[in-house]
Amino acid sequence: MIALIQRVTEARVTVDGATIGAIGAGLLALVGVEPGDGDPQVRRIADRLLNYRVFADADGRMNLGLAQTGGGLLLVSQFTLAADTRSGLRPGFSTAAPPDEAERIFSELVTTCREKHAGGVETGRFGAHMKVSLVNDGPVTFLLRA
């Protein structure tokens, strides 16, 4: 499982012109599910999303995680993160989980994060053509792997 996280001052996802998920300050996480991902990967990524220290403490150092700041979390499924881009000029998607499996695993991640984070967890719509807008704060962007 892969998560590209961005510290944001705001982020939103729209489908067909309607906002379906939005947060203020917090994290936007674009999530790719790979074949074989399951409960251990879901638990590991959820823990990292909620506790990865990307927010400033009183001294201005990145020492606080989302769970400590209470910010929002916007989870967006993005199978292209799991693409094989090692060669050629076209990505291969055999390294991404099949849609049914990916949707199930992504839903487990959403549920786990909602159970563990009181700061609010929003989502995009799995499999939809989404427009994601954000204001990256920093910019601060990290690629996490389970």
General description of the model:
With 146 residues, this protein is of the alpha/beta class. The chain has a single domain (2-139), classed as 3-Layer(bba) Sandwich (D-tyrosyl-trna(Tyr) Deacylase, Chain: A), CATH 3.50.80.10. It has three helices and eight strands, in the order βββαββαβαββ. It has helices at 39-51, 66-69, 99-116, and strands spanning 2-15, 18-23, 26-32, 55-56, 62-64, 72-77, 121-123, 131-145. The strands form two sheets. Strands 1, 2, 3, 6, 7 and 8 form a six-stranded mixed sheet that branches. Strands 4-5 form a two-stranded antiparallel ribbon. Strand 4 (55-56) and strand 5 (62-64) form a beta hairpin. Helix 1 (39-51) crosses helix 3. The radius of gyration is 15 Å and the shape is globular. The termini are close together. The mean pLDDT is 97. Homodimer. Keywords: Cytoplasm, Hydrolase, RNA-binding, tRNA-binding. It is found in: Cytoplasm.
